[in-house]
Amino acid sequence: MKKISCILFWSLLLSISFCYAQKYSIVIKGGHVIDAKNRINEVIDVAILNGKIAALAKNIDINMATQYINAAGMYVTPGLIDLHAHVFAGTEPDHEDNNGFDAVAADGFTFRAGVTTVVDCGGPGWKSFATFKRNIIDQSKTRVLSFLNINGEGMKGVKWEQNLDDMDSKRAADMALANKEYIVGFKLAHWEGTSWIPVERAIEAGNLANLPIIVDFGGSDAHPPLSIEILFDKYFRPGDIFTHVFTELKRRDPIVDLNTRKLKPFVLSAQKRGIIFDVGFGAGSFNFNQAVPAFKAGFLPNTMGTDLHIGSMNASMKDELNVLSTFLAIGMNLQDLIARSTWAPAQAISREELGNLSVGAIADIAILTVREGKFGFRDIDGNRMEGKQRLECEMTIKGGQIVYDLNAIASNPTK
C-alpha cells in the first residue's frame, strides 16, 4: 500500500512539474521578427500564451511550450491587415459586392496569405449592414471589419451608387455608432457625376461618427473626372483615405501626370498633411506607369490594400503577398512593406491593439518566407515587371491559434 502511495506521489509531482514547465502554448524559434510599432528588426523568439503575445526574447526554451515552430530563415510579423477587400459574399443576383457573387468568402483567401484582419470596403450600407454582420462577420474566423458605404444600398452596382437620395449621412453615422466594434469608417465609391455632394455627405457622416472616409472615385468618359487636388485640399481631413492610388484610367484623375510622367506635387504635400494613400490594386486600379514614377519621386503608399474580389484574385492582383511582392520588384524594402500592411493600417482604422507584437497584444502572427529566383508581375494593363523575390506564407496564427500551416512546421517539443 505504501509502495502504491509512493508511486502516486511521485507521479503527481512529475505531473505538476511538467505542467509548471509548460509556461507557453507556442514558442516561435529563430525567426527574423519585423514589428514596426516596436521597431524590432532582428532574430528573436516569440512566445504565446492564452491568445496573447507573452514574451519576446533570445533563446526561449522550447520545452516551456506545448508547441514550437522552427522559424529559422523565415520572417515573423504581426498578422497582415488588408485595408481594402470585398468579403460580403452572397447569393443575390445583380448585387455585386453587397451580398452578391463578386465578393469572396474571407477565410478562403486570408490565412493562406498571412492576413488575419480584413476591412470590407463599402460592400454594405446602412440598409444591409445587419445582414453583413450576421452572415459574414459572425461566421468568419478572419477578423472582419467594415467601411460602411455612404449609399444605403452599398455596393449593389454602379447605378445604385449614383442615387444621391440614398446617401444619408445621419443614418450611416447612426449605424456606425451602434456598431463601433466593427465599423471603422465610411466609403464613397464609383460616383460618376460632377457634383461634390457625395463627398460632402461622406465627410458629414465621418464628422458625426468621428471616423475617417475612404474614397474610390469613379467618373465616366463623358466629362473630366473630379479633381483629386480639390478632394485632398478642400475636403479631406487628416486620416481620410484615398484608395486606388496608382490607377491609370481615363475616368479617374491620376497622381502621375499623363503627359510629363511626373508625380503631381500636391500629392506629397497631401500625404505630409496626414492624408492616407492606399494601393487598392484590384482588377482595374494598378498601373506600373503610375507606381514606378511615383516611387522614384519619393512617394510610397501608406497602406497595401488589395481590393480583393472575384475579378482581382485570379488576375494580376492575386492576394496580399503578391501585392507586397510586386512592390519588392518596384524597389520597396521588406521592412517598409510589412509596416504598411500591419501597423500602418491598424493606426488608420484606430485598431492599435492589432498590427504589432507587443507583450500583451493579440497573438495575430504571419510567418513568411522570401523565395529567391526569377518572378514576373503584371499590372492591370498587362505590363510586366520582373522581380527576384516572392513572399510566401508558411504559417498564420490568429488569436494564438494556428489557422494555416503550409509545410507542417508546428511541432511538439517532446517528439
What's the structural blueprint in terms of helices and strands?
Layout: H1 2-21, E1 24-29, E2 32-35, E3 40-43, E4 45-49, E5 52-57, E6 65-70, E7 75-78, E8 80-85, E9 115-125, H2 129-137, E10 143-149, H3 169-178, E11 183-191, H4 197-209, E12 213-217, H5 228-235, E13 241-242, H6 265-272, E14 276-277, H7 288-296, H8 310-313, H9 320-330, H10 334-340, H11 343-348, E15 365-378, E16 384-398, E17 401-405, E18 410-411
Parallel strand pairs: 1-6, 2-7, 8-9, 9-10, 10-11, 11-12, 12-13, 13-14
Antiparallel strand pairs: 1-4, 2-3, 4-5, 6-18, 7-15, 15-16, 16-17
> Taking strands numbered 1, 2, ... along the chain, how are they ordered across the largest sheet?
8-9-10-11-12-13-14
Please give the share of residues in helix: 25-40%
Low-confidence stretches: 6-20
Residues in β-strands, percent: 25-35%
Structural class: alpha/beta
Computed CA radius of gyration, to the nearest angstrom: 23 Å
- Determine the N-to-C terminus distance: 35 Å
Order of helices and strands: HEEEEEEEEEHEHEHEHEHEHHHHHEEEE
Shape: globular
* Nearest-integer average pLDDT: 93
Number of separate helices: 11
